[in-house]
């Protein structure tokens, strides 16, 4: 009876600690939801590669409130890559919870071997035509070599870098501005979190909750186990060792299938800048080229 009493008392203390846990921390953490941002319809990535890239894209998207999207297509109809990109964004925006989604986007047309880097709304401001050209130049070599994971990673990282730098104003012949981006003027509306603030697992609300649950659960489990006395029955109590044994074993190998396909590569990497407007009326910056 004494052990049961202590177990119930410890359980009450544990529940009280959980009730005092700062619920606002949990609510703030749960706001950020992982969503699909890597649309590899051409099948260029493995599932693990796509998952890793999607996590990176979500991290950057939440940081800048701008969706970082990669879209690949075999484009059997041979649609122009800019139209392909625009149609995808229009559909993506229609299915979004908010109108006029800010985005930076990489589109690959595997039929015509073309790419298009674009920015929408805030993404168009920070990844303007010139910066889209720079991203396209940066990733074209990896695309031509068939290293799609590296190319997509470089796209995400460079777009993230540009989102943290104030862009130069668009070229205006009467303003005297060249339109060339500053080498690196940090954004005034964003201060990157320090390593201690961003990376410390101890300050993470979910980590604190899991630790408290684990410690409380172990303590209550030990007390509850001791409350009922020792258990002396084990697997040997009722086992007949002379007549017990494995009846049979059976391993059946089915098959392993590996398929490969060769993608013809176009060594022409030329391209150019210039945005436009989608069929749905959304303005965008852009840079297109081949790989």
Automatic annotation (TrEMBL):
Listed transmembrane segments: 206-225
Region (Disordered): 167-197, 259-291
Low complexity composition bias: residue spans: 173-184
Domain TPM: start-end pairs: 38-160
This protein's record includes keyword Phosphoprotein: no
Domain of life (superkingdom): Bacteria
InterPro entries cross-referenced by the UniProt entry: TPM_dom
Family annotation (Pfam families): TPM_phosphatase
UniProt keyword terms in alphabetical order: Membrane, Transmembrane, Transmembrane helix
Positions with biased composition (Gly residues): 269-283
The keyword Transmembrane appears for this protein: yes
UniProt name for this protein: UPF0603 protein YdjH
Protein species of origin: Paenibacillus apis
Gene from which this protein is expressed: ydjH
């Amino acid at each position: 009876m004494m052990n049961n009493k202590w177990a119930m008392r410890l359980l009450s203390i544990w529940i009280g600690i959980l009730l005092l846990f700062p619920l606002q921390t949990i609510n703030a953490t749960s706001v950020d939801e992982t969503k699909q941002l890597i649309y590899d319809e051409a099948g260029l990535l493995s599932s693990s590669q796509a998952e890793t890239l999607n996590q990176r894209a979500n991290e950057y998207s939440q940081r800048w409130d701008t969706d970082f999207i990669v879209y690949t297509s075999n484009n059997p109809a041979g649609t122009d890559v800019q139209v392909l990109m625009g149609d995808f964004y229009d559909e993506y925006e229609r299915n979004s919870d908010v109108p006029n989604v800010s985005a930076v986007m990489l589109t690959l047309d595997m039929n015509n071997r073309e790419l298009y880097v674009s920015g929408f709304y805030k993404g168009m401001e920070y990844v303007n035509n010139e910066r889209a050209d720079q991203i396209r130049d940066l990733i074209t070599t990896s695309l031509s070599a068939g290293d799609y994971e590296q190319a997509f990673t470089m796209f995400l990282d460079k777009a993230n870098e540009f989102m943290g730098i104030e862009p130069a104003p668009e070229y205006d012949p009467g303003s005297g501005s060249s339109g060339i981006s500053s080498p690196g003027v940090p954004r005034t509306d964003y201060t990157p979190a320090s390593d201690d603030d961003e990376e410390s697992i101890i300050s993470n609300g979910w980590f604190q909750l899991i630790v408290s649950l684990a410690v409380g659960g172990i303590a209550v489990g030990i007390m509850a186990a001791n409350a009922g006395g020792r258990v002396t029955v084990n697997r040997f109590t009722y086992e007949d060792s002379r007549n017990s044994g494995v009846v049979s074993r059976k391993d059946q190998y089915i098959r392993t299938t590996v398929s490969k396909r060769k993608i013809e590569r176009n060594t022409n990497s030329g391209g150019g800048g210039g945005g436009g407007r989608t069929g749905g009326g959304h303005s965008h910056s852009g840079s297109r080229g081949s790989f």
